[in-house]
Amino acid sequence: MLRVRDLTVRFGGIVALDGVSLDLNRGEILGLIGPNGAGKTTLFNCISGVIPPDHGSIYFDNHSLTFAPPHARARLGVARTFQNLQLWGSMTVEENLIVPMDALGRRNTFSDALSLPFSAYAERASQERARAILHVLDLDRYARTPAGDLPAGIQRRVEIARALAMRPGLLLLDEPAAGLDARETAHLAELLHAVRRRFHVSMLLVDHDMSLVMRVCDYVYVLDFGRMLAKGEPAAIRNDPKVVAAYLGEESEQPAGDIGTVVQARKEELPLLEVKRLAAGYGGLEVIRDVNLEVRPGEVVACIGANGAGKTTTLRAISGMIHPRAGRVVFAGRDLTGSAAEHIAKLGLVHIPEGRGLFPTMSVEDTLRLVSNTAGHEVDVSPAFQLFPKLRERRRQLVGTLSGGEQQMVALARAILSRPRLVMIDEMSQGLAPTVVRQLFEIIRVFREQGIAVLLVEQFVESALDVADRAYVFEHGTIGLSGRAVELRGDRKLVAGSYLGTAVDATAIAASGNGHHADPALMELVSVRVPARVKRALELRAETEGRPAGAVVVELLEKVEHE
Amino acid sequence: MTSRLTIRVLGALLAFAVLARIPAGFDVGFKFDAALAVIWAFGLLSLVLLTGYVGQISLCQATFAGVGAYTAGMMVSSFHVDYLVAVAAGVIAAAALGVIVGLPALRLRGITLAIVTLGIALVFDRYVFQDHAFEWFTGGTGGWRVSQATMFGLRMDSSAHLMAAYLVLLGLFCVVAVLLVNLHESGAGRRFRAIRDSELAAATMGVNLTRYKLLAFGMSAAIAGLGGSFYPLVAGSVSPQPFWLFTSLQFAAIAVLMGVRYVPAAALGGAFMAFVPDVLTRYGHGAFLGHAYEISYDWFQIAVGVLLIGQLIALPDGVWGDLRGRVRHAWSAAGSVGGRRVKVA
Questions:
Q1: CATH code, residues A257-487
Q2: Mean pLDDT, chain B, whole residue set
Q3: Is A69 within 8 Å of chain B by CB?
Q4: 20 to 30 A Cα–Cα from A11, which one of A87, A474, A524, B305?
Q5: Where in chain A is the domain with CATH 3.40.50.300?
Q6: B157 — pLDDT class (breaks 50, 70, 90)
Q7: Residue B305 DSSP SS3
Q8: Gyration radius of chain A's alpha carbons
Q9: Which residues of B touch A91 (CB under 8 A)?
Q10: Domains of chain B by residue range
Q11: pLDDT value at B304 more than 60
Q12: Is the minimum CB–CB distance between A74 and chain B shorter than 8 Å?
């Protein structure tokens, strides 16, 4: 159905794609994986027409797509979603769906302006189809909400809905699981299967989340340095030594024993950072309230929790990027509540925001030397290169042209040069390949050895708990649970029952919310809307009765309805 | 859908009925201002479409209006056609220029597009409207003098028939305003807004960017040109000054000030642009606490600047947009308390 032959794309001197060929049959879900900078997004952009290829051809249903403009491809039935969400934020969800529908229709501007009956009829038809698609994707209740106001997880689903509104034969999904937690990813996998059944579309999927790729895809292609490294069934790919070396990396068993003693030793010390009853938000919305946490010198602390639980907001309130509404932030004995961000940074509290906060048109070396300006004296940048030898090779390169993993290294290097006492890192591993993520977590260990405390916000719960001494679990804008990382890891019930979901296989999901496949809204109710204590009480009851938690909830709800 | 359309049409009729009576008691100067207000309102309306709906920046809307004005002036003075024909010619000429200006917009966006349109405004300002080479178009240094125009076969004389010109302009404005509001809610309007929010997504979702951007520029220029082509009728002559670069900048500033996404804001802005400077020059001098003062036209520019800064801080969606939002908010709050309705789900 889709036939890509010998595709080559060059950006200046860099070869982004080098003779890539690919076949996709009707009804198939094809996975495309590979390290950052391997050319996955470039291939995507070629197929959807955003970038013209230098060489090679693309055929879709026997039409040549090689040089067709994007809107013409859309007419032929090639739809896509975007890694960085590209919804039309000011329009409602329903309108977002109607645009592609009638962009392909035969209506024109003048009949629309006059509201001729013919236009009004087409309008109603489009609205009904939009409603139907939203219903299948369980988005009905957001139909009238402006798309920009929705949380990222819902926006991802709306993007898929919008792509489906084009009646596509082929759906290109660019990192649909980026920024989703394990539970949402499991949802997404189910959703994609349902979409294939209901809408008869083939899909090409790019993602770093191997749990998604393995569960959804029929066939997987692996790209590396613009070349096709391997292709095969997911299971075969997982064990392919070439792929493991280039992309997945070895599974490592983490020794957790020594961390316990470290925690004990540091218990005595005064906390470096102390946050008391912190509350903050944006506009009329209070995102976090009553947050208490502390970080001791040299300690690695992880903040984990579902999307929208308030982790990022907490970091921002600590580093002075937003003003706290209540509570206190004490760092190294000084009250910093409401201080200016640059003042806080000078005291040795460095915040690496989500998206890394780098300057794309500045070279690596200049970025690192910039630290001198804020420090007020010349800073030697060589320790950064010692820590990240790769950056030494690239020191003349512009930061914007580096791969995601290298950019994150620059951000970490910059942080370490300013001699911080505490580094706060937000979503360090977002959008990065597993091997790179593993390297970065190694760096966190180096930080600890050097006595730098780290406060991590992380979506990869298991990796974060591996490296951390302690962890705070955020729920609904406050801290629901905290404790030593080892203990939290061991708490299987918490892991399976709450959003953590380390075991992203279907059985764990089924165990925590049995019977909810039919009703995702209920699942959301159980796993998101309910306070942690109620949830645990529910789970406790479910365990004593030997029934799934979902069944208990359904029973309780029925009781309430009868009364 | 149909009921909403009825409401819009009724709203436009009501607005027409009310606005049509207001200048009746004015002296000639203010009657002229009233007609001019509608002409400027057309210029602002063209920005509502182009910037508010499609998200394209243009700093040459006064040039479009000027092309409309000069074309109409030329048609009436050189070819002695009916004024309606002259207006049609003005609209077509402006739309054609709009499509040409739209061509660079296919590649450019944001600040670069602003600079290109600024350049176009500058070129027309200096080298077309004021250049000897284009005397056939501009009527020479004095511009066209239009004193013997006819419309619908009736004799229109600029000094005696300002009120009639005002009514025709106002009627046309109401019609175009309803069309634009319709367009916003319709399929084409959604495609326009899709381009505004994300061009990349719009293209990959089947919206033909070339077609819709050119369409937007063409329609926007036609609207500005429609207003401009009435200028000779209202003022009795055409000169380069009303359509110079600064008017374009003023359009942009006042459109943002009033709310660039809202059609009624254009009417508000037009009145502001026409009346305030005149009121200032007429009544803006006297003595205060023994000190003689004089508020000239320059003060108007300063006032616009200050108001713009204040608006961007206090009313980020424009005067009309924010006040409308607040009224709606208060209305729905009152409704939910009064009706004791609890929202479920």
A1: 3.40.50.300
A2: 86
A3: yes
A4: A87
A5: 2-247, 257-487
A6: low
A7: helix
A8: 25
A9: 190, 193-194, 197
A10: 37-245
A11: yes
A12: yes
